[in-house]
Amino acid sequence: MSVSIDKAPRHDDSTGWSATAISYRRGEEDPPHYHLEGQLLYASSGVLLVEAVGRRWVIPPQRALWLPPLMEHSYRLLSRTELRAVYFSGSLISECAHFAKNDRVHVIDVVPLVKELIAGLFINDYHTLTKRKMALLLLEIIGEAPSVPAELPMPQDDRLLRAAGELMLSHRWETSLTDMADIANMSERSFSRLFSRDTGFSFRTWKQRARIYASLDLLSENVPVKQIAWRLGFSSPAAFSAAFRAVMGLTPGEF
């Protein structure tokens, strides 16, 4: 697949940053491309699956993803999503002397301050110089914030990737291994072997993790845990909470 550079820089070096807001429908994709600037991807609502350097990250509203300049990436929307992208010039990045992780993908928690700084860059209530300071502070926070887990291994084999993508988009969590092998047009044995090779998980374990990542969008919309458990096919809210803790390290309420 060809790779295209995105639009030319949206700002000059004296400004140092720019931002764009995009509304997506579930299932839309942004094909492989790269930017001259560093980029912070944040979904104010919805969930996106981002691919870069052969890895894939699930980004719900509780997370934001840093992409260094010239980093090739693509993403798929797992739900209706309001995306906020903030771009930072190389000169602005260089002002953050302690941003040691600026050259690699970095996922952070969207704490209230980060959320407010991003929102502030999209309104016209502040002077240009003030907003530049806000963008610089946002960069400083990205640089200091610890990385958090957001990676969902996806199959590299095109047949398996198509089957896994259809499962996540359709939310048909009752889909069996037999069904998945049929979608991929291969035997169950081959499907199981290749799936484990590509993801490091059995299909059953991977599907459990995928369900938990799918729940993040529902949690962000304040859907009750009982309804989430029912929608995702868990036997009870307690079973969902236990699975959530096993994958995310904390309960749905704590998240």
TrEMBL record:
Gene3D superfamilies: Homeodomain-like, Jelly Rolls. InterPro entries: AraC-bd, Homeodomain-like_sf, HTH_AraC, HTH_AraC-typ_CS, RmlC-like_jellyroll, RmlC_Cupin_sf, Tscrpt_reg_AraC-type_HTH. PROSITE patterns: HTH_ARAC_FAMILY_1, HTH_ARAC_FAMILY_2. One of its GO terms (molecular function) is sequence-specific DNA binding. Residues 158-255 form the HTH araC/xylS-type domain. Keywords: Activator, DNA-binding, Transcription, Transcription regulation. Pfam families: AraC_binding, HTH_18. This is Arabinose operon regulatory protein. It comes from Kosakonia arachidis.
